[in-house]
Design a protein that fits this description.
- The protein is an alpha/beta fold and 350 residues long.
- It folds into two domains: 84 residues, Urease, subunit C, domain 1, CATH 2.30.40.10; 250 residues, Metal-dependent hydrolases (TIM Barrel), CATH 3.20.20.
- It has twelve helices and 16 strands.
- The strands form three sheets. Strands 1, 2, 3, 4, 5, 14, 15 and 16 form an eight-stranded mixed beta sheet that branches. It has a five-stranded parallel beta sheet with strand order 9-10-11-12-13. A three-stranded parallel beta sheet has the order 6-7-8.
- Helix 4 runs parallel beside helix 5.
Length: 350
């Protein structure tokens, strides 16, 4: 059971700016009643909502713990199976928590079919396959659906199957996240009508007409610049693509593609702070970046009670030194982390 705590004299990031110093009370949830609380002097510190990484891959509780040590209290997983593993991770308490897509839908000959070892049921060839795939994920209790798009001819699901998956998910009240790592895949992802497009092209630029269509449709980008810039020989196209999305007014969420498998090393937790630096290079302000890892993903993914600090919300909190609204490096100066009111020792503290 979480201890009741009163943080005294702490500034709070309210989604737009820092408040004046105030007192924040919480146990498992945020409260207005300080009775029986242990006082902590937080003068000079800033309280952030628990950070949300909008694209991770989780295999065990140790990855949830790694997220929490870096202030990431919620991870949005984009490929986790079998269902028994998902159930084990959902049962973890006192650490970061997850939402997941379960198994992603893939084509028969794309990169994911060759490298991830996904079960045969992941392969989608037709709109009917897509609808059956979604029905199976709904039966498993996923939080959203993921589809891996490729450029036409590159072995991914046909464009009509990607759209059918997004439509079927919407019929069940679920959003769809579409993976797109090339300009051609972006065309497919945007045309699908899916709410989220994750990654930006490794090489090449997103077509201006696709960016305009994303903005018009209210689609949301999760660029994972940390992952995309980690490949050998990649230039500045990933950052420039994020800059173009941002300049057009497309909503951007902070996600890293943290994982322990193949490809560039993207460590759980720490990588989100690197993502902040890359988003800043793309032109996002510190406040926009903080929003992209707190209130924006919470609202976009329907994470009620997360992403902001208000009475009745879940006590996912990060206490940092300094002012991250003017200096993003302050997000690394973590003094304390609470996941559902349970304190987790930050990275670097003995």
């Amino acid at each position: 059971m979480a201890e009741r705590i009163a943080l005294r004299g702490v500034r709070v990031f309210d989604g737009t700016q820092l408040t004046e110093p105030r007192t924040i009370v919480f146990d498992e949830t945020l409260s207005d009643d300080p009775a029986g609380a242990r006082d902590i002097d937080a003068t000079g510190a800033t309280l952030l909502p628990g950070l949300i990484d909008a694209h991770v891959h989780l295999e065990g509780p140790e990855h949830l713990a790694a997220l929490a040590r870096w202030g990431v209290t919620t991870g949005l997983d984009m490929a986790c199976w079998p269902p028994e593993r998902v159930a084990t991770l959902r049962a973890v308490t006192g650490s970061a928590s997850l939402r997941t897509a379960g198994i992603p839908a893939i084509g028969p000959d794309g990169n994911h079919a060759k490298t991830l070892g996904l079960p045969p049921e992941a392969i989608v060839l037709t709109p009917d396959d897509a609808r059956r795939f979604v029905e199976a994920r709904v039966a498993e209790g996923v939080d959203y659906v993921k589809v891996v798009a490729e450029a036409p001819g590159d072995g991914g699901p046909p464009a009509e199957a990607v759209r059918a998956a997004a439509d079927a998910a919407a019929e069940h009240g679920l959003d769809t996240v579409v993976h797109a790592a090339t300009p051609g895949a972006y065309e497919v992802a945007v045309a699908s009508g899916a709410r989220f497009v994750t990654h930006v092209p490794l090489r090449g630029r997103i077509r201006p007409e696709d960016i305009a269509a994303m903005k018009a449709a209210g689609q949301i980008a999760i660029p994972t610049v940390t992952m995309m810039t980690g490949f050998p020989g990649v230039g500045d196209d990933p950052v420039r693509n994020v800059a173009a999305l941002h300049e057009a007014g497309v909503n951007i969420l902070a996600g890293t593609d943290a994982h322990v498998g193949g490809g560039p090393v993207v460590p759980h937790g720490e990588s989100l702070h690197r993502e902040f630096e890359l988003l800043a290079e793309a032109g996002l302000s510190p406040v926009e970046i903080l929003r992209a890892a707190t209130i924006a993903p919470a609202r976009a993914f329907g994470l009620t009670g997360r992403g902001e600090i208000r009475s009745g919300g879940r006590a996912d909190l990060v206490l940092v030194e300094g002012d991250p609204t003017t200096d993003l490096t302050a997000t690394r100066a973590i003094r304390a982390v609470w996941c559902g009111g349970v304190e987790t020792r930050p990275e670097g503290q003995a």
